[in-house]
Amino acid sequence: MEKKLAFLGPHGTFSEEAALALTAGLQIQRLPYPSIIDVIVAVDKGEVDYGVVPIENTIEGTVNTALDWLIHEVDLPIMGELALPISQHLLVAKREEQLELSAIERILSHPHAIAQCHNFIREHLPQAVIEYTNSTAKAAQTVSEHPEEPWAAIGTRLNPEIYPLSFAWQEIQDYSNNYTRFLLIGKEPLDLPSSSKEKTTILVTLPEDFPGALYQVLAAFAWRKINLSKIESRPTKKGLGSYYFVIDIEQKMDDVLLPGAFAEIEALGCQVRQLGTYPFYMYKAT
Fold first, then answer.
1. Does residue 216 sit within a domain?
2. Is 234 a domain residue?
3. Would residue 191 count as lying in a domain?
4. pTM for this structure?
5. What share of the chain is helix, strand, coil (3-state, %, to 5)?
6. Where does the source fall among the domains of life (predicted)?
């Protein structure tokens, strides 16, 4: 039976592009879902075998919805990660006369896409009202379906290939070095290509009333010369000032170093939950 994979839809999103890159060459059916939560729930309930969700952007930081659901709501291992370069474009519905920037009254897009283009919007579209959508592709679809309206969408380079749109302005993101990290999640192993870079992600809960506990946690990695690429706190939702710590480790799970570090951390009274050990890929255009 053909495997199924969910991504944030509709067609034409960066999530679909990441899903295509992560599963290139595999016989897998890729299905659009309306929100990040819907993607995660579909995998958890077995409607699909795998899911691809955005987790962090270099400009806007963590996608909190995705991270919090993976921490609090489900137990789905991370199976792979892709860093995808992101370029944003101002799109308008095709019409006989091109819509001038000064005539645009409304801009539709995902909150992260809007945030990545703040400088352009302030300079060129100060009159426009912002309307948030679940995805850049949904914004593009909506604008294309209302050509009579003076609306614009911030979306991907693929959107005009799917919907009747044209570019009003290309490459409008504030920073050129704009990447989004996407995670592949699922319950069953997937035959992914090898990668020169592997990662392991863990969730650490500190004991209460233990001064210096976080320092001790980090020391368990430091003296073993284990490199950490990221550490981030997220609320436990149990009380004000109570946090989990999500730690990205720049190596795959082994039989000695990481188990030893985890045992040392647990001996401090901390809880350690492994979120996944997986290959990391940097997107390369083909």
1. yes
2. yes
3. no
4. 0.86
5. 25, 35, 40
6. Bacteria
Backbone angles phi, psi at 212, to 5 degrees: 80, 15
The one-character DSSP state at 96 is S
The pLDDT tens digits of the residues spanning 41-100 come to 999 999 999 999 999 998 888 999 999 999 999 999 999 999 999 899 999 999 888 899
Do 137 and 23 share a domain, yes or no?
Answer: no
Residue showing tokens 């190596």: 251
Determine the structural domain holding residue 36 and report its residue range. 3-86+178-186
pLDDT score of 209: 66
Q: What is residue 4's three-state secondary structure?
A: strand
Here the CATH number for the domain that contains residue 218 is 3.30.70.260
pLDDT tens digits, residue range 112-163?
899 999 999 999 999 999 999 988 999 999 999 999 999 999 999 889 999 9
Mention every residue, 6+ apart, whose C-beta is less than 8 A from residue 11. 32, 137, 162
Please check whether residues 117 and 255 belong to one and the same domain.
Answer: no
**Contact of 137 with 33, CB cutoff 8 Å:** no
Residue range 196-206, pLDDT digits in tens = 999 999 999 98
State the total domains in the chain.
3
Instruction: Give the CATH number of the domain where residue 46 resides.
Output: 3.40.190.10
Q: Residue type for 144, please?
A: S
Q: Is the distance from CB of 202 to CB of 247 less than 8 angstroms? A: yes
Residues 182 and 74 in one domain: yes
Q: What's the pLDDT at 230? A: 95
By DSSP bridging, strand 61-62 and strand 50-57 are: antiparallel
Rg (CA), the chain: 21
In a domain, 192, yes or no: no
User: 73 with 208, same domain?
Assistant: no
Tokens of 171: 């490459």
Asked if 244 and 203 sit in the same domain, the reply is: yes
Spatial contact of 193 and 282, defined as CB atoms under 8 Å apart? no
Burial 132-148 (b: 16+ CB within 10 A, else e): ebbbbbbbbbbbbeeee
